Each structure stands twice: as C-alpha cells, then as structure tokens.
Amino acid sequence: MSRAPFGTRLTAAVAARGSLCVGIDPHPGLLDQWGLPRDASGLERFALTCVEAFAGEISVIKPQSAFFEAYGSRGVAVLERVIAEAQAAGALVLLDVKRGDIGSTMAAYAQAYLSDSSPLAADAVTVSPYLGFGSLDPAIEAAEATGRGVFVLALTSNPEGASVQRALVGGLGGVDGPGGVSVAQSIVDQAAARNAAQRAATGAPLGSVGLVVGATVGRTGLDLSALDGPVLAPGLGAQGAGAAELAAVFGPTLPRVLPASSRDVLRHGPDAAALRTAALRVRDELAAAAR
Questions:
Q1: pLDDT tens-digit map of 205-237
Q2: Omega of the bond leading into 178 within 30 degrees of 0 (cis)
Q3: pLDDT band at 154 (very low <50, low <70, confident <90, very high)
Q4: pLDDT at 122 over 90
C-alpha cells in the first residue's frame, strides 16, 4: 500500500484538526471510575467509546499498548479494533509501545507495528534508543518504507530518567565524557540526521523520526532547532503542564509539538459526547495559546 510519508500526513492532520494528541489509557482505576469491569469486556467498552469520542475530531490518538496487553489475546484483539476503527475515522494512531531491542528482534517488532501486513500496524510507534540509536534502524527503515513514523524517547519526565538521559557523552554516539553533550542531545542529533536524509529524498515538510520530550521537564537544555521532525510532549493537564509550560519547555519548536493528554480528558467519561467536548476544549485552548 502506497502512502505519503508520515511527516506529510501528520502536517496535514494537525492543520485540519489541531495539535492535540489524546491518549487511550484503560487504566484499572479509570475502568472503575467509568463503572466498567476490570476485564476484556470493560476494556473494549472503554476503548471503543474513546474511539467514538475522539477519532473523528482529533488528529492523533495514542493507545497505551500495555493496558491492552494486560488482558492477553482478548486485549490485543481490542487494540487491533481500536487501531483499525480510529484510522477509518480519520485519526492518526500513535501506538505507545516503547519497544527497543537489537537485530532480528527489533526487526520483528518493526514487522508487528509498522508493516502493512500486520493488524497491529499503527501510523507511528514509540521506541526506546537505550540499546544505542543504531539499534532502531529496523524500525526506522520499516517506517520510512511504509509511510509511517517513530517517536524516539529522548527526555522523559520520570525522575529516574535523568541519570541516563542527562548524562554526558563525548559527542555524537560517543562514550568518552565528561565534557560532551547529553545523552538526550545525542539522540536529538541522530534523529535530526535521519530526518534530513529522508526530507532530502522525499521533500516531506517534516521528517518521520520524532522525539518524546516530557512537557513537565522544565528547561531541557536541548537544541531541537535542527530536528525537522515532530515532538510528542506527554504530561498535558493532569500531570501539570499547560500552554505556558509548553512554551517554556519548547520555545520556537512549539509549532512541531504534539501535546499529549490522557487522564485529564478521560476523567470525563464514560459519556462519549462529554469526552469529545473535553478534548475539543483542550485542543482549542492550545490553538488559542499558539496564536
């Protein structure tokens, strides 16, 4: 199946539907809050209600794979439906799987999530570079070949991440710090290089290798100016980030940022109309703040 590069499709989706990314996180506590059982039937009702609420209006939806996998094969079957039905309604699906491995195992993950032949294939996935950025080559190559994208973990908001992500290395891919750039910056630089090559080959307005940078990390110290790719920014709403925090963290990169909100929107369920209203309110607030 031939499709435009992910960066091209994402640019069009954001122009038409705004920059908000809404997470579909069927956390057991949310199932309780919605009055649903903690089983595969409750998962299905939760997830498909979210698709009904968001997929026709929001540019990107982000199912958290772990909450589906927790229910075994029945949960994965629900995830397949979420992906298919959300895409059919016009949303881009960013599957939050955070996979990272080497060689044939990474290639198998790429086959599962980025191949046209897989029922789990999303428009983009999250991946972890902490076995070395080069270990992501099978996923990046599969994404580029099929018009999909990857979002690489760079600087996350969890406190434990700083000891690795803010550590210094000697330079691009180097290991002889101190005195070099941070690990996170080395990831940014390698993503930027992949995007530059892809954009030169395709003419896409945005590269298909994105980054994940937490919306609540404060001053990042990152130079994102050469990235030419999207940035997923989890933490909007319940975790404390608003428009002001996004502007402080991302500065001139803000037009390429996908702010992600999950619990702050999902708490308005189980009514699909109320969920949609909450998501559209956040989307419109982001648009107003960006003017």
A1: 999 999 999 987 777 789 999 999 999 999 887
A2: yes
A3: very high
A4: yes
pLDDT band at 175 (very low <50, low <70, confident <90, very high): very low
Is 98 labeled as catalytic in the residue annotation? yes
CB 195 within 8 A of CB 229: yes
239, 208, 242, 211: which is closest to 25 by C-alpha?
239
Contacts of 90 (CB under 8 A, 6+ apart): 55, 56
Looking at domain 6-290, what is its CATH homologous superfamily?
Aldolase class I (3.20.20.70)
| CA-wise closest residue to 36 among 71, 87, 81, 66 | 71
The full length of the chain comes to 291
Structure tokens at 113: 């999530």
Q: Where are the domains of the chain?
A: 6-290
Q: pLDDT, tens digit, for every residue of 240-269?
A: 667 777 888 888 899 999 999 999 999 999
Q: Output the pTM of the full model.
A: 0.94
Q: Which two tokens stand for residue 243?
A: 């428009």
CB within 8 A of 80, min separation 6: which ones?
Answer: 119, 120
With beta carbons less than 8 A apart as the criterion, state whether 151 and 126 touch.
yes
Q: 74: number of CA atoms within 13 Å, CB side?
A: 9
pLDDT averaged over the chain? Answer: 93
Q: Is the peptide bond before 270 cis (omega within 30 degrees of 0)?
A: yes
Q: Provide the strand spans (E) within 199-291.
A: 209-213, 231-234, 257-261
Tell me how far apart the alpha carbons of residues 192 and 126 are, in angstroms, rounded to a whole number: 16
Chain center to CA of 182: 22
Which CA distances in Å does 4 have to 13, 18, 146? 12, 19, 8
Which of the following is catalytic: 38, 81, 98, 166? 98
Token pair, residue 119, equals 């029922």
